[in-house]
Amino acid sequence: MPVFVIDKELVFPPVNLAEPDGLLAVGGDLSPERLLLAYRSGIFPWYEGEHILWWCPDPRFVLFPGELKVSKSIKTLINKGVFEFTTNRAFTQVLHHCKTIKRPGQEATWITDEVEKAYGKMHELGYAHSAETWKDGELVGGLYGIKLGKVFFGESMFSKISNASRFAFTRYVQQLKEEGIVLIDCQVYTEYLESLGARMISREDFIQQLKDKSEPACRQAGR
């Protein structure tokens, strides 16, 4: 199947036309309007060089909050109050750490200056949120993503010390569940998130979940 090239028009191709690896389209921009259309349609951006690539893989890696696995070590950290947990206190710092902190086996980050600016704007508009782990007043871990309706779309996380990101993720999932979030999009498989309870579902099931639980979907090209 061809990879679609998109321009300034706020449309995406039907997600079932994505390549086997999930690649759907290239081009466009990271305006709030396009990002909201993408997430509501089950699509997420990922940079490769200077190009914005848009993805909708099948199957999709997700976490249902009620299936969260909390390890004994995290339960101990929570009970002993080793870390402090907050939300939206340091969004800009969390996003920048996700951009700059190196991860094992990862040569570069997809979070470009343009991405950093775009998600900063999404935070200002109330769509992007962060969760933070603090130790002795220092930000040591966290994550950020987009919240629409009853769905949270996870984007990236970082950790400066052991268990800091796992702590933030665990506490935030617990909070999101209390807030009525019923689905967390983890996008693509990682062994790390699988250990926390994430699992694969079909793209068809994922898109249906979005229709039922996210904000109303916008139009797509060809529909």
Describe this structure in words.
By secondary structure, the protein is of the alpha+beta class. The chain has two domains: 4-59 and 205-213, Alpha-Beta Plaits, CATH 3.30.70.3550; 62-200, 3-Layer(aba) Sandwich (Aminopeptidase), CATH 3.40.630. It contains seven helices and eleven strands. The strands form two sheets. Strands 6-7-8-9-10-5-11 form a seven-stranded mixed β-sheet, sandwiched between helices. A four-stranded mixed β-sheet has the order 1-2-4-3. Helix 5 links the parallel strand 9 (151-159) and strand 10 (183-187). The longest helix has 15 residues, at 164-178. The radius of gyration is 17 Å and the shape is globular. 39% of the residues are buried. Residues 217-223 have low confidence and may be disordered.
Keywords summarizing the entry:
223 residues; alpha+beta; Alpha-Beta Plaits; Aminopeptidase; seven-stranded mixed beta sheet; four-stranded mixed beta sheet; 7 helices; 11 strands; disordered C terminus
Give the second-level CATH assignment, the architecture of the largest domain.
Answer: 3-Layer(aba) Sandwich
Name of the CATH class of the largest domain:
Alpha Beta
Number of domains: 2
Give the class from helix and strand content and strand pairing: alpha+beta
Assembly type of the chains comes to single chain
Low-confidence parts, pLDDT < 50 over ≥5 residues? 217-223
- The CATH H-level homologous superfamily of the largest domain: Leucyl/phenylalanyl-tRNA-protein transferase, C-terminal domain
How does the major sheet shape up? 7 strands, mixed
Please give the count of helices.
7
Give me the CATH fold name of the largest domain. Aminopeptidase
